[in-house]
Amino acid sequence: MQDPRLRLAAVTALSVAAFSSTAGAVAAFAWWLLFTPRTRALPRPGLLLPLIAMIAAAALVSELGGGAGLSYFIRMTVILLIAAWAYAATEEGEVLAVAVWALGDRIGFEIGLIAEMGLSGLSVIRQEIDQVRAAMALKGMRPGLRTVVPLAVTLIVTELRRSEEVARLLMVRGYAHGGRICPRFRKGAWDIPAALSALIAVILSVLPVGDVFILLGRSF
Hints:
The structure is a single chain. With about 220 residues, the chain is mainly alpha-helical. The chain has helices at about 5-20, 20-35, 40, 45-65, 70-90, 95-140, 145-170, 190-205, 210-220. It is globular and about 55 Å long. The two termini are about 30 Å apart.
């Protein structure tokens, strides 16, 4: 989806549907399979698999405790896939443009600027992790608890310092509040059908499964 406004609406609808019920998660997963390119929707296995393993561990604990562990695993995994696609598809400046379009030059600009800074920070952290991994591989070191914890602390401290530097730079340049840009958006041929199809997942998430089959039977 090229239009970030429709992409955000679709992501919101699919996330709500997947979180609400297993049926909504299955419908959202079908949407993900149909409308997202695999090359951009999936992060690297080294990042995706540990997150899925964490979800699976929490689901197993819930299942052993008598909870709906399987449903939790399905719903959270689909939400993870949708979030990965949304992050990969978002280009620099799109969040700021959508925020200004929706909320105006003052509040929208401030919210969009904060969001853009957050996404930029995530991108920097990802690059730094890649550099550390490459350095560890050259030294023949394997990732472990003794190396991961200090690395995580270092990255957090570095990002906090970078945020302070950016805030100080904005203050020096006289930034007070708000700003003015002219958002421009482009639409793909499948943007509107894809956004409307996301609403189907929301409908399926609130309807009982039996009612879904009844509706399908009547339609045929």
